[in-house]
Design a protein that fits this description.
The chain is α+β, with helices and mostly antiparallel strands. 30% of the residues lie in helices and 18% in strands. The structure holds guanosine-5'-monophosphate. Guanosine-5'-monophosphate binds next to strand 2.
């Protein structure tokens, strides 16, 4: 497996070199909107520590990562009025991974709706900004 590349797009987001629609941040993790959402409210939670994916990560990152995933998933229920929240995570290209910095997808699933394609169409930034705001409001109420 290749080694971690600190020039990947999520590392650049973490360093503030490229913009993102932020939802939440703590010492170990950062949550923001996926630019090509598979459903309204599709969010990503990333570790601040750099690893390609779950396979090369130091296990100490998993507890804070999943704590933030749970926080964002609960906020998704409130912000997007859903009961169902899909959590998914890809490891290496054969499994569908496209960005090589450990991340977890948090996708609200309204009943009876289909997901759009993975890494499909870019959403309007105004819509992503609105959805990030809904998340932040839900988190502020929690
Ligand atoms: P993976 O396939 O690696 O699990 O997912 C990478 C995700 O990152 C995809 O869902 C894709 O839409 C998203 N993505 C790719 N480039 C960017 C970007 O520059 N900004 C944001 N916010 N999301 C991105």
């Amino acid at each position: 497996m290749p080694s971690y590349d600190p020039e990947n797009i999520f590392a650049k987001i973490l360093r503030g070199e490229i913009p993102s629609h932020k939802i939440f941040e703590d010492e170990h993790t950062y949550a923001f909107m996926d630019i090509m959402p598979q459903a309204d409210g599709h969010a990503l939670v990333i570790t601040k520590a750099g690893s390609r994916n779950l396979l090369d990560a130091d296990p100490s990152v998993f507890a804070p990562l999943m704590a933030t995933v749970q926080k964002v998933a609960r906020a998704a229920q409130k912000a997007f009025g859903v009961e169902g929240v899909l959590i998914k995570q890809f490891n290496e290209a054969d499994a569908g991974q496209t960005v090589y910095h450990l991340h977890v997808h948090v996708i609200p699933r309204p009943a009876g709706t289909l997901l759009k394609p993975h890494s499909g169409k870019m959403a309007d930034h105004s819509l992503l900004a609105e959805h990030a705001g809904k998340y932040r409001a839900a988190l502020a109420e929690a």
